[in-house]
Write a sequence for this structure.
């Protein structure tokens, strides 16, 4: 009887662990700490933290930040989650409603990190888009993306 | 086989069957095929949170750091003028959460201003005031990480090291506020820092004519527009936001009269030449001073 009780406890604990871990994957602090050195020699400017559950619909997210002429920028994308497909990343010089906007960077985020560096020709708002395709197997999956923006003065 | 042995075997068999059933029920693959009610509720909450953050315009805005703004101004000729920064003794005036957050912002800008101008004693005084407010706000853990405060004190005479430490403090603060769902505090802190940075730079331009710095001041119109958007988004949630929003909008109205805004192209946020005339600087500085006086006295 004791063994059955012990077994039940183990199973319930395992169950709880599994259900909570699925939603506790966005440990932003850990993600940032682990990648802080990848920002060097750039200094920290700001960050965007996004967590989402991907199921049968694709997700499009736009992030805006101000870049100054006379500074160089490093964009560091950090990824964590159960989602296996690639998150498409694009960086533009204008908002999506401008037909004349130019794409500065395009890349994919399928593993832990992706990096982009650029020097803005003029001061202004720049736009980053995440295109997250629907989950292939239609099952809800958690994805966590952190964007760290670093700057450096140009000579 | 004895009865005892038979019983033992039966028990082992029963346990094996039970274990197999439970193990199957616990298997992660099984979790993925069907989300439990709790998980569905959490998913709904997450979707709702995402929708709220997107708030119609489907965008997030990353606030720059006060150090970054100070760095831009410094490169353009920002000079140190004694007696301009918010006295550390004012920290006692900030009695509620909102004014404490504003105070952290004011001192953040002051620390950055003093550090990049090698004002060691003033840097330390402003940092202590900032730390005291952070303690009162329950966010002192930001400084405990990597012993940031100790590192700041030890490196007080080394500008490069201090800049690194300030950069780390900002990163720690941002991640703390994000993890604790206190983004509104980040907006409040940044609003205070932005007004203080603008005040310090406009005072420098007024005392020493500097075309490059006045152009950099003009560029800040973009940041101001973004702060106003952020405050509008959250104005119902925080008691101090409506008053702060009103003040920042009054600064924006002044900017809107500047020639680089009135002469901008239809598809531009502002014209490329953001030069600001002496008269425009005077109007802007007067408004900044008026609002800053309220902020440093904790009366907003």
């Amino acid at each position: 009887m004791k063994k059955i009780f012990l077994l039940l406890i183990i199973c319930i604990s395992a169950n709880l662990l599994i259900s909570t871990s699925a939603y506790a994957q966005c440990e932003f602090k850990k993600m940032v700490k682990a990648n802080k050195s990848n920002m060097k020699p750039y200094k920290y400017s700001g960050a965007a933290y996004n967590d989402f559950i991907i199921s049968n619909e694709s997700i499009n997210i736009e992030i805006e930040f101000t870049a100054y002429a006379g500074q160089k920028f490093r964009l560091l994308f950090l990824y964590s989650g159960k989602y296996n497909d690639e998150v498409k990343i694009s960086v533009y010089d204008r908002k999506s409603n401008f037909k004349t906007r130019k794409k500065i960077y395009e890349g994919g985020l399928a593993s832990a990190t992706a990096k982009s560096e650029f020097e803005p020709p003029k001061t202004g708002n720049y736009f980053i888009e995440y295109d997250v395709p629907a989950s292939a197997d239609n099952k809800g999956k958690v994805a966590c993306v952190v964007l760290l923006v670093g700057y450096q003065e140009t000579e | 086989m004895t009865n005892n042995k038979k019983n033992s075997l039966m028990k082992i068999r029963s346990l094996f069957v039970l274990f197999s059933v439970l193990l199957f029920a616990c298997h992660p693959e099984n979790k993925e095929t069907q989300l439990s009610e709790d998980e569905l509720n959490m998913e709904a909450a997450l979707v709702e949170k995402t929708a709220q953050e997107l708030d119609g315009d489907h965008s997030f805005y990353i606030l720059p750091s006060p150090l970054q703004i100070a760095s831009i101004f410094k490169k353009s000729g920002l000079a140190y003028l004694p007696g301009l920064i918010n006295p550390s003794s004012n920290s006692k005036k900030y009695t509620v959460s909102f004014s404490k957050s504003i105070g952290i912002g004011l001192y953040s800008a002051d620390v950055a201003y003093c550090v990049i101008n090698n004002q060691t004693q003033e840097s330390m005084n402003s940092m202590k005031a900032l730390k005291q407010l952070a303690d009162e706000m329950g966010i002192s853990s930001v400084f405990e990480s990597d012993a940031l405060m100790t590192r700041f004190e030890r490196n007080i005479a080394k500008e490069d090291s201090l800049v690194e430490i300030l950069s780390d403090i900002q990163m720690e603060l941002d991640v703390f506020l994000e993890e604790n769902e206190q983004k509104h505090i980040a907006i409040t802190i940044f609003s205070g820092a932005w007004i203080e940075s603008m005040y310090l730079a406009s005072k420098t331009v007024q005392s020493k004519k500097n075309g490059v710095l006045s152009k950099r001041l003009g560029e800040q119109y973009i940041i101001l527009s973004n702060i106003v958007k952020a405050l509008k988004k959250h104005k119902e949630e925080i008691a101090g936001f409506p008053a702060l929003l009103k003040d920042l909008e009054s600064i924006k109205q002044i900017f809107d009269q500047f020639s680089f805004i009135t002469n901008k192209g239809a598809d531009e946020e502002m014209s490329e030449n953001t030069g600001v005339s002496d008269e425009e600087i005077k109007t802007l500085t007067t408004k900044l001073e008026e609002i800053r006086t309220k902020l440093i006295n904790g009366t907003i």
User: Anything to note?
Assistant: The mean pLDDT of chain B is 84. Residues 198 and 217 of chain B are 7 Å apart (CA to CA). The longest strand of chain B covers residues 59-62.
